[in-house]
Amino acid sequence: ASGIGQTVTIAYAKAGVEGILTCDINFDGLDATIEECKKVASHPNFRVLPLKVDVRIDRDVINMIETAVKEFGRLDYAANVAGVSCLAYSWLHRSRYGADYNIHAINIRGVFLCMREEIKAMLKNELRPLIPGLASTRGSIVNMGSLASVTPVPGMTAYTAAKHAVVGMTKAAVVSHSGDGIRINTVNPGYTLTPQARAFFTDFTPYENGTLLKADVFLCPKRMGSPEEMADATLFLSSPLSSYMTVSKYKQLISFLANATVGVFHIQ
User: Fold this and answer.
1) How far is residue 163's CA from residue 160's CA, in Å, rounded to a whole number?
2) Does the residue 230 lie in any domain?
3) Gene3D superfamilies per the record (predicted)?
4) Would residue 164 count as lying in a domain?
């Protein structure tokens, strides 16, 4: 785990969850995440377990959720952060089947399979009260979208389509299950300083409050976002603080090209 996925996992530990099953196709990369979780965990009985998972494979995802329920008793929160982007800008007529297939397999099928199994598990949970006499919950799911979920990105057709699909699947799942006490939302990060972003963008401009692209004119805060800021949004949408919010699309680092909005968060 790295980037936003790793930071989200650590944020859950710091916030006080009792147990975390942290999953990645790169099992070796989970060690650093686990150690950091143990350092910051605030629950006295905290446990964190690693599991190698390929979200493109049915059996892997089924086993992931079965393991979580077996180890911790129930599934209360899920964050579907696994995703891949393009290695370089590529116009549609030059796109390669293998690369585009993998983008869709992870970003669309992966999120679909994870939500399917998470909802199955949460439907078995007993309702827990949030607001006496008014609101109860069985669980909360947060899907990681992208700026490309709401804004077309030139040269990234496959990725834009995949991230639009994440929002579409979230909306459809909410229509089906909001009455069951399950909230589902998306966080749509803009330019965020992750290892994946560092590999994608090779030309950074230093700035006293962070690191900027030379295209910083498009970014309202005049800097890139941090994985920690994306984790904060994910944690908020998971928590009772957002108990009246579902199918919300949090756009981070807004004001980009024609999709300009003023503010830090924009809720649709």
Assistant:
1) 5
2) yes
3) NAD(P)-binding Rossmann-like Domain (3.40.50.720)
4) yes
Identify the sign of the CA torsion 119, 183, 235, 17: negative
Catalytic residue positions?
159, 163
Is residue 134 in some structural domain? yes
**Element housing 139 (H / E):** strand 139-144
**At a CB cut-off of 8 Å and minimum separation 6, what does 61 contact?**
53, 55, 110, 113, 114, 116, 117
Round to whole Å and give the CA distance between 123 and 182: 8
Calculate mean pLDDT across residues 181-203.
75
Instruction: Give the pairing of strands 182-188 and 204-207.
Output: unpaired
Q: What is the CATH number of the domain that holds 179?
A: 3.40.50.720
Amino acid at 243: S
Q: What is the mean pLDDT of residues 24-49?
A: 93
Rounded (10°) angle between helices 157-177 and 111-123: 10
pTM of the model: 0.84
Q: Is residue 34 part of a domain?
A: yes
Number of domains in the chain: 1
Please state the length of the chain.
268
Does 219 have pLDDT greater than 70? no
Q: Are the C-beta atoms of 253 and 219 separated by less than 8 Å?
A: yes
Q: H helices of the chain, where?
A: 3-15, 30-40, 58-72, 97-104, 111-123, 157-177, 195-200, 227-238
Domain that holds residue 115: 3-190+225-242
